[in-house]
Amino acid sequence: MEVEEHKAFTLSEISLHSSKSDCWLLIHGKVYDVTMFLEDHPGGEDVLLEASANGDATNAFEDVGHSSTATSMLSSYLIGVLEGTSNSGTVDTRNQQSSKVVRREGVGFVAPNTIKGRNPSSSASMNLFEYLIPLIIFVVAFGTWYFFNKTKP
């Protein structure tokens, strides 16, 4: 079985490709040139352009819950990997700081320690509210029902 080698790109190189005429996405450590797919994307080209401009599009891609067909389509747009990742898309973090592409006046540069994406504490609190709000609604509804049924003779 032959392992296919791909060109390695830095975040700085990837950040230079975020326009309608040249759009690359970084998903799971792999670099995809999706320029030809922009007009065909069911969610619209703006979604892809925004994901491209934000640096690592992995969270945006996963949050949508793409079908297996959409996921398999990615391979046809694969052009390389993020520098410091293996061909499987796993990041080698032994000697690498995490970073995110930041845009200022049309110039891409790398800001250290910001590629993590979501703030873990905000994600945890969001999960808490997903369960807490329905519970509060249930308690208020039950309390209201109990109050009105108790006052009946």
Automatic annotation (TrEMBL):
Gene3D superfamilies: Cytochrome b5-like heme/steroid binding domain
Keyword annotations of the record: Heme, Iron, Membrane, Metal-binding, Transmembrane, Transmembrane helix
Major localization listed first in the record, in broad terms: membrane
The Cytochrome b5 heme-binding domain, residue ranges: 6-83
Keyword Iron: yes
GO molecular function list: heme binding; metal ion binding
Signal sequence residues: none
Listed InterPro entries: Cyt_B5-like_heme/steroid-bd, Cyt_B5-like_heme/steroid_sf, Cyt_B5_heme-BS, Cytochrome_b5
PROSITE patterns xrefs: CYTOCHROME_B5_1, CYTOCHROME_B5_2
One GO CC term, this protein: membrane
This protein's record includes keyword Phosphoprotein: no
TM helices/strands, residue ranges: 128-148
Subcellular location: Membrane
Superkingdom of the organism of origin: Eukaryota
Family: Belongs to the cytochrome b5 family.
Stated name of the protein: Cytochrome b5-like heme/steroid binding domain
